[in-house]
Design goal:
This protein is an alpha/beta fold. It has three domains: 2-33 and 245-281, no CATH class; 48-54 and 116-242, P-loop containing nucleotide triphosphate hydrolases (Rossmann fold, 3-Layer(aba) Sandwich); 58-107. Helix content is 52%, strand content 12%. The protein is built from 13 helices and six strands. The protein has helices at residues 2-14, 18-28, 37-40, 58-81, 88-103, 117-131, 143-155, 170-179, 190-193, 214-221, 244-261, 269-272, 275-281; strands at 47-54, 136-140, 160-163, 185-189, 204-207, 233-240. A six-stranded parallel β-sheet has the order 1-6-5-2-4-3, sandwiched between helices. Strand 3, helix 8 and strand 4 (185-189) form a beta-alpha-beta unit. It is globular.
Length: 283
């Protein structure tokens, strides 16, 4: 296992060694039959993905830049003085804080009273989709982020279903969403509801924040784009401009290209980041 990790995983994931990827693919080809969903379920309706780039509000952007500068200065100096390896926890904390700020500052600061560019963009887009009579799955990796929308829907008397890791009666909630024509919105934690659910009544999927591993997002999309779906499916990804989210999207695309040529087990994303990746993310 140590040999495989050093010879292939490190070379392919960290060094982007295409020659090693081809070599490993040749080794496993006789043993792995790879079939994409498009090959197996060719009768599925099409799906369309669109990225919405959201400008942060003025107050949100100021909060984001202040927080980014504090983390960046500390982490970059640790790269120079050799203490960076001890900063892995702080790196994760910093990136998580920046991702939450890109969504809505109230996620890390309950006293924040201003607005969020992404929240306004999502609500505006959702309003248009609901006016068209569609059903929507809304995924976030942050339960706090879902909570912001949950509070909004309750204030506006918009019926919605909700599922996160603490939800007990998943089957009942899913069945209600599938059969209840008045229930148009389903808020779902991507960690809890990304697999095992059949939600083919929905034809729109909102991904509120990018996940490190693009395969996790794909699993969420597959809750509705699966056998039994009769309508075209539209996937909207909301990305806060000039934030770490744009950098995550770029890293995702790199990983997608790798995954298309090779099936590999991904290591912890944070641990796989090179110093160059981190400098880019915090730039």
């Amino acid at each position: 296992q140590a040999f495989f990790n050093e010879e292939y995983v490190q070379a392919i994931e960290k060094k982007k060694d295409e020659e090693k990827a081809r070599k490993l693919q040749a080794i496993i080809k006789p043993f792995v039959l790879r079939r994409t969903k498009e090959q197996v379920a060719s009768e599925l309706p099409s799906k369309t993905e669109q990225v919405f780039y959201c400008n942060m509000s003025e107050d949100q952007a100021a909060y984001y830049e202040k927080t980014k500068s504090a983390y960046r200065n500390d982490l970059l100096s640790s790269m120079d003085d050799g203490t960076f390896k001890k900063k892995q926890v702080q790196l994760l904390q910093g990136l998580t804080a920046l991702r939450q700020l890109a969504n809505h500052p109230i996620m890390i600061d309950a006293s924040y009273e201003s607005d969020s560019g992404k929240f306004e963009n999502v609500i505006h887009t959702l309003d248009n989709v609901l006016k068209g009579g569609h059903k929507v799955l809304i995924f976030s990796q942050f339960v706090k982020h879902l909570g912001i929308f949950k509070n909004y829907f309750e204030r506006e008397s918009i019926p919605f279903a909700y599922l996160d890791g603490s939800t007990k009666n998943r089957g009942e909630i899913v069945a209600d969403f599938q059969s209840n024509t008045e229930l148009k919105v389903f808020l779902i934690s991507i960690k809890a509801g990304g697999v095992g659910l059949n939600l083919t009544q929905a034809d729109y999927v909102f991904i509120l924040d990018p996940w490190w591993n693009p395969a996790v997002e794909q699993q969420a999309i597959d809750r509705t784009h699966r056998i039994g779906q009769e309508k075209k499916v539209f996937i909207y990804k909301f990305i806060a401009k000039d934030t770490v989210e744009e950098k995550i999207l770029a890293l995702q695309n790199r990983k997608k290209r790798l995954a298309s040529s090779l099936i590999t087990t991904e290591e912890s994303f944070i641990k796989s980041l090179s110093k160059e990746d981190i400098r880019e993310i915090l730039s």
